[in-house]
Amino acid sequence: MSFSVEVLTLFPEFFDSPLQQSLLRRAIEAGLFDFxxxxxxxxxxxxxxxxDDVPYGGGAGMVMKPEPLVGALExxxxxxxxxxxxxxxxxxxxxxxxxxxSLSEGPGMILLCGHYEGIDERVxxxxxxxxxxxxxxxxxxxxxxxxxxxxxxxxxxxGVVGNRESLMDESFSCGGLEYPHYTxxxxxxxxxxxxxxxxxxxQKIEEFRREQSLKRTLERRPDLLxxxxx
Length: 230
Ligand code: 6GU
Prior knowledge:
One of its GO terms (biological process) is tRNA N1-guanine methylation. This protein has 8 helices and 7 strands. It is an alpha/beta fold and 230 residues long. It has 2 domains: 3-154, 3-Layer(aba) Sandwich (Alpha/beta knot), CATH 3.40.1280.10; 165-229, tRNA(m1g37)methyltransferase, domain 2 (Trp Operon Repressor, Chain A, Orthogonal Bundle). Strands 2-1-6-5-7 form a 5-stranded parallel β-sheet, with helices on both faces. Strands 3-4 form a two-stranded antiparallel sheet. Strand 5, helix 4 and strand 6 form a beta-alpha-beta unit. The longest helix has 19 residues, at 202-220. Bound molecules: 6-chloroguanine. 6-chloroguanine is lined by residues 88-90, 133-135, 137-139, 141-142, 145.
Protein backbone atom coordinates (compact mmCIF):
# COMPACT_ATOMS: atom_id res chain seq x y z
CA MET A 1 0.00 0.00 0.00
CA SER A 2 1.39 3.37 -1.05
CA PHE A 3 1.68 6.57 1.00
CA SER A 4 -0.55 9.32 -0.45
CA VAL A 5 0.25 13.02 -0.41
CA GLU A 6 -2.19 15.55 -1.81
CA VAL A 7 -1.39 19.25 -1.69
CA LEU A 8 -4.23 21.77 -1.93
CA THR A 9 -2.81 25.03 -3.25
CA LEU A 10 -3.46 28.12 -5.37
CA PHE A 11 -0.10 27.43 -7.08
CA PRO A 12 0.04 23.75 -8.11
CA GLU A 13 2.96 24.43 -10.51
CA PHE A 14 5.10 25.30 -7.50
CA PHE A 15 5.44 21.54 -6.87
CA ASP A 16 6.30 20.47 -10.45
CA SER A 17 10.06 20.81 -10.35
CA PRO A 18 10.79 19.65 -6.78
CA LEU A 19 8.82 16.44 -7.31
CA GLN A 20 10.84 15.71 -10.43
CA GLN A 21 14.15 15.73 -8.55
CA SER A 22 16.10 12.61 -7.70
CA LEU A 23 14.96 11.27 -4.37
CA LEU A 24 11.28 12.20 -4.52
CA ARG A 25 10.94 11.19 -8.16
CA ARG A 26 12.54 7.81 -7.55
CA ALA A 27 10.17 7.23 -4.64
CA ILE A 28 7.17 7.99 -6.87
CA GLU A 29 8.48 5.81 -9.70
CA ALA A 30 9.10 2.96 -7.26
CA GLY A 31 5.43 3.22 -6.17
CA LEU A 32 6.42 4.11 -2.59
CA PHE A 33 4.22 7.18 -2.53
CA ASP A 34 1.88 9.04 -4.81
CA PHE A 35 1.54 12.75 -5.13
CA UNK A 36 -1.12 15.08 -6.43
CA UNK A 37 -1.26 18.89 -6.41
CA UNK A 38 -4.84 20.17 -6.59
CA UNK A 39 -5.73 23.76 -7.48
CA UNK A 40 -8.07 25.16 -4.82
CA UNK A 41 -9.43 27.54 -7.48
CA UNK A 42 -11.01 24.53 -9.23
CA UNK A 43 -13.41 24.34 -6.27
CA UNK A 44 -14.55 27.97 -6.28
CA UNK A 45 -18.30 28.27 -6.53
CA UNK A 46 -18.73 31.40 -8.64
CA UNK A 47 -18.15 32.28 -12.27
CA UNK A 48 -15.15 34.51 -11.50
CA UNK A 49 -13.41 31.57 -9.75
CA UNK A 50 -13.02 33.69 -6.58
CA UNK A 51 -10.97 32.18 -3.73
CA ASP A 52 -10.62 35.13 -1.34
CA ASP A 53 -12.66 37.96 0.13
CA VAL A 54 -12.34 40.93 2.48
CA PRO A 55 -12.29 40.21 6.24
CA TYR A 56 -15.44 40.73 8.31
CA GLY A 57 -14.67 43.51 10.77
CA GLY A 58 -12.36 45.20 8.30
CA GLY A 59 -8.59 45.41 8.23
CA ALA A 60 -5.79 44.86 5.77
CA GLY A 61 -5.47 41.86 3.48
CA MET A 62 -7.76 39.16 2.19
CA VAL A 63 -9.06 35.93 3.68
CA MET A 64 -9.40 32.60 1.86
CA LYS A 65 -13.09 31.81 1.41
CA PRO A 66 -14.46 28.64 3.01
CA GLU A 67 -16.33 27.11 0.03
CA PRO A 68 -13.33 26.33 -2.23
CA LEU A 69 -11.23 25.13 0.73
CA VAL A 70 -13.86 22.75 2.06
CA GLY A 71 -14.73 21.61 -1.48
CA ALA A 72 -11.10 20.68 -2.12
CA LEU A 73 -10.69 19.04 1.31
CA GLU A 74 -13.86 16.95 0.89
CA UNK A 75 -12.91 15.89 -2.63
CA UNK A 76 -9.46 14.75 -1.45
CA UNK A 77 -10.95 12.90 1.54
CA UNK A 78 -13.50 11.15 -0.71
CA UNK A 79 -10.67 9.78 -2.84
CA UNK A 80 -8.04 9.09 -0.15
CA UNK A 81 -10.08 8.13 2.91
CA UNK A 82 -9.48 9.27 6.49
CA UNK A 83 -5.97 10.66 6.21
CA UNK A 84 -4.82 13.66 8.29
CA UNK A 85 -5.64 17.13 6.94
CA UNK A 86 -2.68 19.37 7.71
CA UNK A 87 -2.77 23.17 7.49
CA UNK A 88 0.59 24.87 6.94
CA UNK A 89 0.57 28.05 9.01
CA UNK A 90 3.06 30.05 11.11
CA UNK A 91 0.58 29.53 13.98
CA UNK A 92 0.98 25.74 13.88
CA UNK A 93 2.94 23.23 15.96
CA UNK A 94 6.65 23.54 15.13
CA UNK A 95 7.76 20.79 12.74
CA UNK A 96 10.10 18.30 14.43
CA UNK A 97 11.79 15.04 13.45
CA UNK A 98 9.41 13.31 15.86
CA UNK A 99 6.37 14.71 14.02
CA UNK A 100 7.90 13.67 10.69
CA UNK A 101 8.38 10.10 11.96
CA SER A 102 4.81 9.95 13.21
CA LEU A 103 3.30 11.17 9.90
CA SER A 104 5.57 8.77 7.94
CA GLU A 105 3.74 5.81 9.53
CA GLY A 106 0.99 6.62 7.08
CA PRO A 107 -1.35 6.21 5.36
CA GLY A 108 -0.62 9.70 3.98
CA MET A 109 -1.59 13.36 4.37
CA ILE A 110 -3.52 16.20 2.80
CA LEU A 111 -1.52 19.45 2.94
CA LEU A 112 -3.47 22.71 2.78
CA CYS A 113 -1.37 25.75 1.85
CA GLY A 114 -2.72 29.01 3.18
CA HIS A 115 -2.27 32.40 1.52
CA TYR A 116 -3.17 36.05 2.05
CA GLU A 117 -3.89 36.86 5.69
CA GLY A 118 -5.10 33.32 6.35
CA ILE A 119 -8.09 31.05 5.95
CA ASP A 120 -11.62 31.45 7.28
CA GLU A 121 -11.54 30.31 10.92
CA ARG A 122 -14.52 27.96 10.45
CA VAL A 123 -12.49 25.79 8.05
CA UNK A 124 -9.67 25.56 10.57
CA UNK A 125 -12.13 24.50 13.30
CA UNK A 126 -14.11 21.92 11.37
CA UNK A 127 -11.93 20.48 8.61
CA UNK A 128 -8.32 20.53 9.84
CA UNK A 129 -6.67 17.81 11.97
CA UNK A 130 -3.23 19.33 12.49
CA UNK A 131 -1.56 22.74 12.01
CA UNK A 132 2.17 22.83 11.31
CA UNK A 133 4.73 25.65 11.15
CA UNK A 134 8.27 25.17 9.86
CA UNK A 135 9.81 27.92 11.99
CA UNK A 136 9.52 31.41 13.42
CA UNK A 137 9.63 33.48 10.26
CA UNK A 138 7.01 34.49 7.72
CA UNK A 139 6.66 33.05 4.21
CA UNK A 140 4.48 34.44 1.42
CA UNK A 141 2.41 31.25 1.52
CA UNK A 142 2.30 27.69 2.80
CA UNK A 143 3.83 26.12 -0.35
CA UNK A 144 7.53 26.15 0.65
CA UNK A 145 6.51 24.86 4.09
CA UNK A 146 4.47 22.04 2.50
CA UNK A 147 7.53 21.03 0.48
CA UNK A 148 9.69 20.99 3.60
CA UNK A 149 7.16 18.87 5.50
CA UNK A 150 6.69 16.56 2.52
CA UNK A 151 10.44 16.02 2.13
CA UNK A 152 11.02 15.38 5.83
CA UNK A 153 8.20 12.79 5.93
CA UNK A 154 8.67 11.02 2.60
CA UNK A 155 12.35 10.22 3.19
CA UNK A 156 11.28 8.24 6.29
CA UNK A 157 8.87 5.98 4.36
CA UNK A 158 10.46 2.50 4.27
CA GLY A 159 12.38 2.03 1.03
CA VAL A 160 12.73 5.71 0.08
CA VAL A 161 16.16 6.24 1.65
CA GLY A 162 18.32 3.13 1.12
CA ASN A 163 20.04 2.95 4.48
CA ARG A 164 17.81 2.77 7.60
CA GLU A 165 20.93 2.99 9.79
CA SER A 166 21.82 6.42 8.38
CA LEU A 167 18.29 7.59 9.25
CA MET A 168 18.61 6.55 12.89
CA ASP A 169 22.15 8.00 13.04
CA GLU A 170 21.41 11.46 11.80
CA SER A 171 20.88 14.75 13.60
CA PHE A 172 17.81 14.95 15.86
CA SER A 173 16.92 11.24 15.64
CA CYS A 174 19.35 10.62 18.53
CA GLY A 175 18.63 13.97 20.19
CA GLY A 176 21.75 15.88 19.13
CA LEU A 177 23.65 17.12 16.09
CA GLU A 178 25.54 14.82 13.79
CA TYR A 179 29.31 14.26 13.97
CA PRO A 180 31.61 15.67 11.20
CA HIS A 181 32.20 13.66 8.02
CA TYR A 182 35.31 13.30 5.85
CA THR A 183 36.04 11.59 2.55
CA UNK A 184 39.02 11.34 0.17
CA UNK A 185 41.51 12.82 -0.46
CA UNK A 186 43.33 12.30 2.81
CA UNK A 187 45.19 15.61 2.26
CA UNK A 188 43.07 18.39 0.81
CA UNK A 189 45.08 21.61 0.31
CA UNK A 190 47.12 20.83 3.36
CA UNK A 191 44.08 19.96 5.48
CA UNK A 192 44.13 16.49 7.00
CA UNK A 193 41.58 14.04 8.37
CA UNK A 194 41.39 13.14 12.10
CA UNK A 195 43.86 10.28 12.58
CA UNK A 196 41.40 8.06 14.45
CA UNK A 197 39.15 7.79 11.37
CA UNK A 198 42.06 6.22 9.43
CA UNK A 199 42.89 3.77 12.21
CA UNK A 200 40.30 1.09 11.44
CA UNK A 201 39.63 0.90 15.19
CA UNK A 202 35.81 0.80 15.14
CA GLN A 203 35.28 1.27 18.86
CA LYS A 204 37.57 4.32 18.97
CA ILE A 205 35.89 5.74 15.88
CA GLU A 206 32.47 5.40 17.47
CA GLU A 207 33.74 7.05 20.65
CA PHE A 208 35.28 9.94 18.64
CA ARG A 209 32.03 10.50 16.78
CA ARG A 210 29.97 10.46 19.97
CA GLU A 211 32.33 13.04 21.50
CA GLN A 212 32.23 15.28 18.44
CA SER A 213 28.47 15.06 18.25
CA LEU A 214 28.11 16.05 21.92
CA LYS A 215 30.67 18.89 21.60
CA ARG A 216 28.94 20.28 18.54
CA THR A 217 25.51 20.09 20.16
CA LEU A 218 26.77 21.85 23.33
CA GLU A 219 28.37 24.62 21.27
CA ARG A 220 25.61 25.18 18.75
CA ARG A 221 22.34 23.87 20.14
CA PRO A 222 22.49 23.39 23.92
CA ASP A 223 18.68 23.58 23.89
CA LEU A 224 18.64 20.09 22.33
CA LEU A 225 20.38 18.59 25.38
CA UNK A 226 17.80 19.87 27.88
CA UNK A 227 15.73 17.06 29.32
CA UNK A 228 12.04 16.92 28.37
CA UNK A 229 10.89 17.27 31.99
CA UNK A 230 12.69 20.55 32.77
CL1 6GU B 1 3.63 26.80 7.45
N1 6GU B 1 3.36 29.20 6.37
C1 6GU B 1 3.74 30.47 6.22
N2 6GU B 1 3.03 31.27 5.41
N3 6GU B 1 4.78 31.00 6.83
C2 6GU B 1 5.47 30.18 7.64
C3 6GU B 1 5.15 28.85 7.85
C4 6GU B 1 4.05 28.38 7.19
N4 6GU B 1 6.02 28.30 8.70
C5 6GU B 1 6.86 29.27 9.00
N5 6GU B 1 6.54 30.41 8.38
